[in-house]
From TrEMBL:
Top-level lineage group: Bacteria
GO terms for MF: DNA binding; double-stranded DNA 3'-5' DNA exonuclease activity; endonuclease activity; metal ion binding
All residue ranges annotated as the Endonuclease/exonuclease/phosphatase domain in the record: 4-248
Record-linked PROSITE patterns: AP_NUCLEASE_F1_1, AP_NUCLEASE_F1_4
Protein name: Exodeoxyribonuclease III
Cofactor note: Probably binds two magnesium or manganese ions per subunit.
Site (Important for catalytic activity): 218
C-alpha cells in the first residue's frame, strides 16, 4: 500500500498535476492539504473520474484538507480538532480506509513569530497531540500524514542560518513535534533516511528549486501497528519540477 501526503497549493490550479500524479503513480491513499477550495467547489467529479473516492474539508481561499482512496470511499471519522471552539480553520480530517485510520493534517505556518499566529501554531500542536494520544490508545494501524510546517532537525533544511528566524524551525515548534513523535509515533521518512538531506518543499522564490534549496516539512507519522508494516518511504521529487507544480513534492510511505 502506497500512502501519499501532498500539499497541492490550490487544488483547482494544480488539478492537472494531481490527476497526472494519480494516473502515473496509482497511490492507494492520498492526503491532500492547502486545497484553497470551498466544499462546494471541490472537484469531486474529476477525482472520481480518476478512480478515487474522496472525503474533504474545504475552506474558501485557503487551508482545506482531503483524503482520496483508490477504488473506494474513505469513511469519515472526525473533522477538526477539539480544544478550541473558535477555530474555524479547515486543517484536520480523519478517516478510515481499508482497516487503516488516516489523518490529513495542515498544521499552521506560525509566521511571523513571535505573535498570535505563532501562539496559534503551538496551541494547535498541543491539540493534535491530544488527538494522537487517543488514536494510540485504540491500538490500531494509523497514519498522521500532512504538511506539519515544522523542520524537525538541522539536517532537514538546506540552510540552518537562512531558516533560523522562521516559525518552522523555532525551538518551540521542534519541541512540540518531537513531543508528539515521542509518545509512540514513527517518523517514516526519518526512519528510512536517518542521515537527513531529504527535502519535501522548495519555495517559488530565489530559484530555490533550481538550487535544491529545500527543506523537509511534510511528514508521515505511523502508530506502532502501522510502523510494523513499514517497508519504505520517500519523496516523488521530480513532480516538483513539472510545469505549474505545487511547491511541495508528494511524500510517501509504503506499508506491507
Amino acid at each position: 500500500m502506497k500512502l501519499v501526503t501532498y500539499n497541492v497549493n490550490g487544488i483547482k490550479a494544480r488539478l492537472p498535476r494531481l490527476l497526472e500524479y494519480l494516473a502515473e503513480q496509482k497511490p492507494d491513499i492520498v492526503c491532500l492539504q492547502e486545497l484553497k477550495s470551498s466544499d462546494e467547489t471541490f472537484p469531486e467529479a474529476d477525482i472520481r473520474g480518476a478512480g478515487y473516492g474522496a472525503v474533504w474539508h474545504g475552506q474558501k481561499g485557503f487551508n482545506g484538507v482531503a483524503v482520496l482512496a483508490k477504488g473506494m470511499d474513505p469513511v469519515e471519522r472526525q473533522r477538526g480538532l477539539a480544544g478550541d471552539p473558535e477555530d474555524a480553520h479547515s486543517r484536520y480530517l480523519e478517516v478510515d480506509v481499508d482497516g487503516l485510520t488516516v489523518a490529513s493534517i495542515y498544521l499552521p505556518n506560525g509566521n511571523p513569530q513571535p505573535g498570535p499566529k505563532f501562539d496559534y501554531k503551538l496551541k494547535w500542536i498541543d491539540r493534535l497531540r491530544d488527538r494522537a494520544r487517543a488514536l494510540l490508545a485504540e491500538e490500531r494501524p494509523a497514519v498522521l500524514a500532512g504538511d506539519y510546517n515544522v523542520i524537525p532537525n538541522d539536517d532537514d533544511t538546506y540552510s540552518v542560518s537562512a531558516m533560523q528566524d522562521d516559525a518552522l524551525m523555532q525551538p518551540e515548534s521542534r519541541a512540540g513535534y518531537r513531543a508528539l513523535v515521542a509518545e509512540g509515533w514513527t517518523d517514516a521518512l526519518r526512519t528510512r533516511h536517518p542521515g537527513g538531506g531529504v527535502w519535501t518543499f522548495w519555495d517559488y522564490q530565489a530559484g530555490a528549486w533550481q538550487r535544491d534549496a529545500g527543506f523537509r516539512i511534510d511528514h508521515l507519522l505511523l502508530s506502532p501497528q502501522a510502523a510494523d508494516r513499514l517497508s519504505d518511504a520517500g519523496v516523488d521529487k521530480e513532480y516538483r519540477g513539472r510545469e505549474k507544480a505545487s511547491d511541495h513534492a508528494p511524500t510517501w510511505v509504503r506499508l506491507r
